[in-house]
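Format notes (please read before filing issues)

Several people have asked whether sequences and structure tokens are stored in separate files. They are not. Every record keeps both together, in the order shown below: the sequence lines, then the token lines. Line labels are part of the format and must not be stripped during preprocessing.
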Amino acid sequence: MAATGVGMDLPAYYSYYDSPVKVVATEDGVPQVWRIVMDTGGWMRDDSILGELLFAAAGEVSRRSAEEFVQDVERYRSDYLSGDGPVFALYETAAAIIDSAVRERRNPSPRERAMVRGIRRKTFVMFEEALRAAGDPAADPNVEG
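Then the structure lines:
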């Protein structure tokens, strides 16, 4: 459900200096900014950057669609996190698909890109569900990506 706050439709998604960021509304319509945490993959509240998000025209801050946000988050998590379990096995599968194309000095095929996007959508839901179970207040496995 989209809410409006501070002149923007919420939720809203951004890339902020290559870091995924989301702005969501509280029940009373107040915007909250959540940045991904590099060492956990969870979310940290950072309302201090709201103005930069609202007024950035270009450069290091860009608006992202929900689908782009999901892909950005999972690319970020797979780049910065390591571990065991099904999510990390899927990260390795996506990386292997991309690495294969790189080794062969070609762009990933449309089928390979679709596979990686699908894997990332799946890992996003899995990771967000785990965050929610652990009590992360900004975890949301239902982003329409």
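For reference, the curators noted about this record: The radius of gyration is 16 Å. The mean pLDDT is 92.
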